[in-house]
């Protein structure tokens, strides 16, 4: 199986033409993102046409794409960005062991690039409430994942790294060495996050809880803001039926140094009255940090990591360091933890 970053512009253009009926005049890899298994490209076509293309080593379930079109067409949520069909009418294509999805280009900035105004926050709250209140037909809701808790892989892997000598973490080049130095510098805080994640999960228990449709990766980079108060939600790969805290935890989580304020002006007015479980908010924030640490590890140290673009790996190093900066995710998770004490 190819890694998405091993694709040439000629290969990408061929697939776009044959599978999606799109003639590409330029293909540019997007620099952002910490997903070790996927790559996003900006595609330009004739007469100024543009698209986003995402290539993944993993497969997103077809029901996710169907739900997105349902939200747009039946719930009236035009803020939800859904994939464009292939020539055969499918939402995704497979080629060279990768899953390919093509999306319309939206003329807007991500929440990492532009701060949300009060109007944007209020609109985001309203849209997110509509997503959470959406009533899906059984044929769409039944196939969606319903995790009691999120995948434990990151928790187990970070725990294994903590329990063995740091020196045994593989190092393959100078960037790997820098990653190891960051790991050692922040090891105590990482261990505290890992321990608290387990404690919070135990306190929550395995009891039943109301579930809603969740985006599940609602950080600032996946919210686009446009003119006026327009917002758009992108990158729904992690869609699940879960407690609403799975999404609400991002407001105040500080991911990427953004949205670190627990109550940004306008969001609560847009979302409306709600009772939030502080235990779940704290758990999800701690779990997310461990998940990101796993991604950074894979980008810097996994087999084949040195073949990745240096810019992406340096960005992962920067993200790793920023996690522990004042007001970033480690601080925000600690604040959420404190809210559960007493």
In short, what is this structure?
This protein has 342 residues and is of the alpha+beta class.
Query: Which sequence of SSEs, written as H and E, runs from N to C?
Result: HEEEHEEEHHHHHEEEEHHHHH
Total DSSP E strands: 10
Oligomer status: single chain
Tell me the domain tally. Answer: 2
Poorly predicted regions are none
Widest sheet, order of strands: 1-2-3-5-4
Task: From the 3D structure, determine the CATH topology of the largest domain.
Answer: Transferase(Phosphotransferase), domain 1
Number of helices: 12
Q: Please identify the structural class as seen in this structure.
A: alpha+beta
Provide a descriptive summary of the structure in words.
By secondary structure, the protein is of the alpha+beta class. The chain folds into 2 domains: 1-60 and 82-105, Phosphorylase Kinase, domain 1 (2-Layer Sandwich); 106-342, Transferase(Phosphotransferase) domain 1 (Transferase(Phosphotransferase), domain 1, Orthogonal Bundle). Helices cover 41% and strands 12% of the residues. The protein has 12 helices and 10 strands. It has a 5-stranded antiparallel beta sheet, with helices on one face. Strands 6-8-9 form a 3-stranded antiparallel beta sheet, with helices on one face. It has a two-stranded antiparallel sheet with strand order 7-10. The radius of gyration is 20 Å and the shape is globular. The model has no long low-confidence stretch (mean pLDDT 92).
């Amino acid at each position: 199986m190819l890694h998405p970053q091993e694709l040439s512009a000629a290969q990408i253009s061929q697939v776009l033409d044959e599978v999606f009926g799109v003639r590409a005049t330029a293909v540019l890899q997007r620099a952002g993102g910490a997903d070790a298994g996927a790559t996003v490209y900006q595609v330009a076509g004739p007469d100024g046409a543009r698209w986003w293309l995402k290539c993944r080593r993993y497969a997103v379930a077809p029901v996710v794409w169907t739900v997105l079109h349902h939200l747009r067409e039946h719930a009236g949520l035009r803020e939800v960005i859904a994939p464009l069909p292939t020539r055969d009418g499918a939402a995704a294509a497979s080629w060279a062991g990768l899953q390919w999805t093509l999306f319309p280009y939206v003329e807007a900035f991500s929440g990492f690039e532009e701060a949300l105004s009060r109007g944007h926050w209020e609109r985001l709250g309203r849209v997110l409430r509509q997503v959470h209140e959406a009533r899906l037909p059984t044929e769409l809701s039944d196939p969606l994942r319903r995790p009691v808790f999120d995948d434990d892989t990151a928790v187990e892997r970070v725990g294994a790294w903590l329990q063995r000598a740091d020196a045994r973490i593989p190092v393959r080049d100078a960037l790997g060495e820098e990653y190891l130095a960051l790991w050692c510098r922040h090891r105590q805080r990482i261990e505290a996050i890992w321990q608290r994640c387990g404690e919070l999960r135990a306190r929550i228990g395995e009891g039943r809880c109301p579930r809603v449709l969740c985006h599940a990766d609602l950080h600032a980079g996946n919210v686009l803001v446009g003119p006026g108060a327009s917002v758009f939600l992108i990158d729904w790969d992690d869609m699940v039926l879960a407690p609403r805290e799975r999404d609400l935890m991002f407001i105040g989580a500080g991911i990427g140094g953004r949205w670190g304020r627990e109550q940004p002006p306008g969001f609560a007015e847009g979302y409306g009255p709600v009772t939030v479980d502080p235990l779940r908010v704290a758990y999800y924030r701690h779990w997310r940090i461990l998940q990101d640490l796993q991604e950074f590890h894979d980008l810097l140290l996994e087999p084949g990591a040195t073949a990745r673009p240096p810019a992406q790996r340096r960005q992962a190093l920067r993200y790793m360091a920023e996690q522990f900066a004042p007001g970033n995710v480690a601080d925000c998770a600690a604040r959420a933890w404190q809210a559960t004490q007493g």
